Amino acid sequence: MRLVLFDIDGTLIDSGGAGVRSLDLALKDLFSIENGFHGISMAGKTDTQIIKEGIIKHGLSASGTIDAVIKAYLNYLRREINNDRKHVKPGIYEALKELKPLQNLGLGLLTGNIEQGARIKLEPFRLNEYFPAGAFGSDDEDRNNLLPIALKRFEELFQQKIEPDNCIIVGDTPRDVECAHIYGAMCIAVATGPYSYNDLIEAGADYVVQDLSDRNALLQFF
Predict the structure, then answer these.
(1) Which helix (DSSP H) or strand (DSSP E) does residue 208 occupy?
(2) pLDDT tens across 197-208, in order?
(3) Are residues 44 and 94 both part of a single domain?
(4) For the chain, first and last CA: distance in Å?
(5) What string of DSSP letters covers 15-44?
(6) How many domains are there within the chain?
(7) Within this chain, do residues 93 and 187 fall inside the same structural domain, yes or no?
(8) Domain's final residue, options 80, 107, 126
(9) Contacts of 130 (CB under 8 A, 6+ apart)
(10) pLDDT for 50-103, tens place per residue?
(11) Do 27 and 53 touch, CB atoms closer than 8 A?
(12) Residues 123, 182 share a domain
């Protein structure tokens, strides 16, 4: 049994800024703070990490605040995802359609998005149907703890043992590379997010492509 786990933002889709806008609107709604997440680096982090950084930046108490921000964020995200700038990254539909029928292969998510946010972002593109399970920022604040969670869920789903070295993580940041390699999994990095092709090579990705319109980027491994 092999497993391919996809990141979302910058890898599968571009939300057209819906995530950042929704976080900013949540802080504005709850605490009258404008552009509350300006200057906070978000690439590759979990939503919980990002929200905590925003809370600390503005001197707010974490107790009870994180849950309130998440609730407001999700409410705004359902609206903000409906924008004209959102789009699927090149080659995604084609790659998923070729991978889905393959025997002994599971497709899933490994993302810093909380699960509800992940599903909201993917729904307009009809991508949820490809990913029956995964690991999310709502499972653990530390992205490096997510791969074992995803493995456990797919082992329960398929009633088979899955070893980390039979997993491929597809992502667009050095954090995706790190969270794969600490368990002996492979990382295919796509330069469709904030990091360049050379940045991802330097990060140590096993295979780097400009985007997944290179159909061999994934299929050569199966």
Answers:
(1) strand 207-209
(2) 999 999 999 999
(3) no
(4) 11
(5) -TTHHHHHHHHHHHHHH--TTTTTT---TT
(6) 2
(7) yes
(8) 80
(9) 96, 100, 107
(10) 888 888 888 887 777 889 999 999 999 999 999 999 999 999 999 999 999 998
(11) no
(12) yes
Alpha-carbon distance of 158 to 123, in angstroms, equals 24
Mention every residue, 6+ apart, whose C-beta is less than 8 A from residue 63.
Answer: none
In this model, does residue 217 exceed pLDDT 80? no
CA-closest candidate to residue 140, choices 46, 67, 69, 52: 46
Per DSSP, the residues of 70-88 read: HHHHHHHHHHHT--TT-EE
* 169-186: pLDDT as tens digits: 999 999 999 999 999 999
Residues 209 and 101 in one domain: yes
Per residue in 4-57, pLDDT (tens digit) is: 999 999 999 999 999 999 999 999 998 888 887 887 888 878 988 888 888 888
Q: For residue 160, give both structure tokens.
A: 């088979």
Distance, in Å, from the CA atom of 16 to the CA atom of 89, rounded to the nearest integer, reads 12
Strand partners of residue 137: none
Q: Are residues 63 and 160 in the same domain?
A: no
Predicted confidence band of residue 2 (pLDDT cuts 50, 70, 90): very high
The boundaries of the domain holding residue 40 are 18-80
- How far apart CA 213 and CA 89 sit, in angstroms, is 9
- Average pLDDT, whole number, for the chain? 93
- How many whole angstroms separate alpha carbon 43 and alpha carbon 60? 23
Helix (DSSP H) and strand (DSSP E) numbers for the chain:
9, 8
